[in-house]
C-alpha cells in the first residue's frame, strides 16, 4: 500500500521523533528495545496487534554513499519498508546508532569564516513603511 504525500510526511515526522528520542534519551532507547509497540504508539506509529515488528539497529557509517561520500536513500528505504509493512504485516524499522559529531576545534581561519565571514543585512518587513 503506497503512502500519499501527506501520509509520507506524517510518517517522516513520527519516525524522526523515534530517531531523536533514541539518540537523546537512554530511557526512551531502552523502552524502544524492550517494548517497541508501546513506544511507537506514543509517537503515533500504530502497529496492528497481529503484525510482526522488527527494530533493527544500524551503524550510521555503513550503507550506500553518493560520489561525495554522503549517505543516500536511508529515509526513502525506510518509507518503502513501512509501505511493505502496511501490505504484508511485517514492519521493519531501522534505528541508526547515535551519529558521531565531529567535535574537533576550528582553527582561527575557519572560525573567522564562520563568525565574521559575511555582511549582515536586516529587513524586518517587505514593505516600505520603515522609511
Widest sheet: strand ordering = 1-2
Number of domains: 1
CA-to-CA gap between the ends? 56 Å
Let me know the largest β-sheet. 2 strands, parallel
GO molecular function: catalytic activity; transition metal ion binding
Report on this model:
This protein is mainly alpha-helical and 131 residues long. The protein has helices at 5-24, 26-34, 36-42, 74-88, 108-115; strands at 52-58, 90-96. The chain has one domain (5-100). The chain contains five helices and two strands. The protein has a two-stranded parallel sheet with strand order 1-2. Helix 4 (74-88) links the parallel strand 1 and strand 2 (90-96). The protein is elongated. The protein starts with a helix and ends in a 16-residue tail after the last helix.
Provide a short characterization of the protein structure.
The chain is mainly alpha-helical and 131 residues long.
Amino acid at each position: 500500500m503506497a503512502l500519499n504525500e501527506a501520509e509520507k510526511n506524517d510518517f517522516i515526522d513520527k519516525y524522526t521523533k523515534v530517531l531523536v528520542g533514541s539518540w537523546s534519551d537512554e530511557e526512551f532507547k531502552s523502552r524502544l528495545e524492550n517494548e517497541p509497540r508501546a513506544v511507537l504508539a506514543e509517537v503515533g506509529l500504530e502497529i496492528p496487534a497481529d503484525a510482526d515488528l522488527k527494530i533493527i539497529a544500524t551503524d550510521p557509517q555503513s550503507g550506500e554513499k553518493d560520489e561525495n561520500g554522503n549517505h543516500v536513500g536511508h529515509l526513502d528505504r525506510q518509507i518503502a519498508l513501512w509501505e511493505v509493512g502496511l501490505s504484508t504485516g511485517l514492519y521493519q524499522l531501522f534505528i541508526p546508532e547515535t551519529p558521531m559529531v565531529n567535535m574537533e576545534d576550528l582553527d582561527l581561519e575557519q572560525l573567522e569564516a564562520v563568525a565574521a565571514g559575511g555582511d549582515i543585512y536586516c529587513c524586518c518587513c517587505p514593505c516600505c513603511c520603515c522609511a
